[in-house]
Amino acid sequence: QKEVEQDPGPLSVPEGAIVSLNCTYSNSAFQYFMWYRQYSRKGPELLMYTYSSGNKEDGRFTAQVDKSSKYISLFIRDSQPSDSATYLCAMREFSGGYNKLIFGAGTRLAVHP
Amino acid sequence: NAGVMQNPRHLVRRRGQEARLRCSPMKGHSHVYWYRQLPEEGLKFMVYLQKENIIDESGMPKERFSAEFPKEGPSILRIQQVVRGDSAAYFCASSPETSGGAGTQYFGPGTRLTVL
To answer: Which terminus in chain B has less CB density within 10 A, N or C?
Structure first.
């Protein structure tokens, strides 16, 4: 079993839809949870991160963490064609005295006009 | 404020040649990570370096691959005697912190290596 599981999609939605992207994980020691967005043939860019359980909102994006279920989500409201990208979840593991990020495989999202 | 820089952006090599990939971290960052990404796959950790030190190379193949981050200059990922299976996008990330905090890493645009 992988430490971080993420459905690769692809996920196709119409413009304006609410998008839900999810990851599950197995390591209960993870404390920081991140979402990165990666456009085709570009490097990943950090969207937002959350510490422990709870919600965090940034514009049209909301990150949610449920540590009891080992489940994290990213919601995108009023999705736009420019949101079409691969979304990667990542979790911070503190091991050996330093931080290490464990990534999910990424979910490809296509928002069509 | 320049982000993480990587060069070259595209690199073509024939089997058996050497590939050298360079990464300059963000200003103020002294921690560098290298990842490999195959098509339709996630990021696979390769190696973590601080200035003049390799901290964790657990994700790097034992043979043909090496990495360094000298006191001066960029970090280098070196692949000797490349094979077709080395074709991938290689990303470098940098971070300002090692312990505590979110451990957020900032990524460069990547180097796409094609082995003919």
So the answer is: N
Residue A52 has what pLDDT? 84
Distance of alpha carbon A111 from alpha carbon A94, whole angstroms:
35
Q: CA of B52: how far to CAs of A106, B30, B67, B76, B104, in Å?
A: 32, 10, 10, 11, 21
Residue A29 confidence (pLDDT): 86
| Residue A55 and residue A64 in contact, taking contact as beta carbons nearer than 8 Å | yes
* Residue pointed to by tokens 């003049």: B52
Tell me: the pLDDT tens digits for B3-60?
A: 999 999 999 999 999 999 999 999 888 899 999 998 777 899 999 999 889 999 999 9
Region A76-95 average pLDDT: 93
CB pair distance less than 8 Å for B103 and A101: yes
| Nearest in space to B33 (alpha carbons), one of B52, B18, B55 | B55
Nearest to A5 by CA among A96, A85, A72, A94: A72
3-state secondary structure of A81: helix
How many angstroms separate the CA atoms of B8 and A112, rounded? 33
**Do A45 and B45 make contact, defined as CB atoms within 8 angstroms?**
no
Report which residue type is found at A63.
A
DSSP state at residue B25: P
Identify the DSSP state of B57.
Answer: -
DSSP B85: G
- Please report where in the chains the tokens 């992207």 appear, as a residue: A21
> pLDDT, tens digit, for every residue of A89-106?
999 888 777 778 889 999
Question: Do the Cβ atoms of A111 and A84 come closer than 8 Å?
Answer: yes
CA–chain centroid gap for A64, Å, is: 9
